[in-house]
Amino acid sequence: VQQVESGGGLVQPGGSLRLSCAASGLPFNRYHMAWFRQAPGREREFVASIDWIGASTAYAESEGRFTIARDNPKNTMYLQMNDLKPDDTAVYYCAADLVSRNSGSVLAYKYWGQGTLVTVSS
Questions:
Q1: What is the chain's mean pLDDT, rounded?
Q2: Based on the number of CB atoms within 10 Å of its own CB, is 12 exposed (0-12), middle (13-18) or buried (19 or more)?
Q3: Are 23 and 96 contacting, i.e. CB atoms less than 8 angstroms apart?
Q4: In the prediction, which pLDDT does 63 show?
Q5: Residues with Cβ < 8 Å from 116, sequence gap 6 or more?
Q6: What would the mean pLDDT of 15-41 be, rounded to a whole number?
Q7: Is the model's pLDDT at 62 over the cut of 80?
Q8: Which end of the chain is more exposed for a tag (fewer CB within 10 A), N or C?
Q9: Which residues contact 48 (CB under 8 A, 6 or more apart)?
Q10: In this structure, are strands 90-97 and 116-120 parallel, antiparallel, or unpaired?
Q11: ∠ at Cα 112 (29, 33), nearest 5°?
């Protein structure tokens, strides 16, 4: 199983980024997916999740700035992030699990990517 995140980078406050997570080695259209992030010196925290078919989503507090989506035929999940703030600076990880639907717990997900760094700074 491999999950590869991309799309991170340096962006100014107020800017936007779209992260992608490309999965292989698993039946992607059966897996619930999520985004987590980890800032320096902090615990990994839940950002958003989407169920296997994309019919249900859940978000941590992001004031409506983030949108999670998936494209099952492409085995890819996305996170659109708008109006980024310095506090959004973190490594963003994608996670997958066959059972845990829209869970916000790190422990609920079996497969993880290596992460992509998002830095919000002027």
A1: 95
A2: exposed
A3: yes
A4: 77
A5: 5, 6, 7, 8, 19, 91, 92
A6: 96
A7: no
A8: C
A9: 34, 35, 57, 58, 59, 60, 62, 66, 67, 68, 79
A10: antiparallel
A11: 35
Cα-Cα end-to-end distance for the chain: 37
Pairwise CA distance, residues 68 & 77, whole Å: 8
Confidence label for 48 from pLDDT (cuts 50, 70 and 90): very high
Per-residue pLDDT at 61: 79
Query: What is the rounded distance in angstroms from the CA atom of residue 87 to the CA atom of residue 42?
Result: 12
Residue 46 in tokens: 């839940």
**CA–CA gap between residue 52 and residue 36 (Å, rounded):** 17
Contact 109, 3 (CB under 8 A): no
* Overall average pLDDT of the 43-51 stretch: 97
Is it the case that residue 100 has pLDDT exceeding 90?
no
| Average pLDDT of the segment spanning 91-119 | 95
Name every residue whose Cβ is closer than 8 Å to that of residue 82 and which is 6 or more positions away in sequence.
Answer: 16, 65, 66
- Asked if 35 and 94 count as a contact pair (C-beta separation under 8 A), the reply is yes
The answer to whether residues 36 and 77 touch, using CB atoms and an 8 Å cutoff, is: no
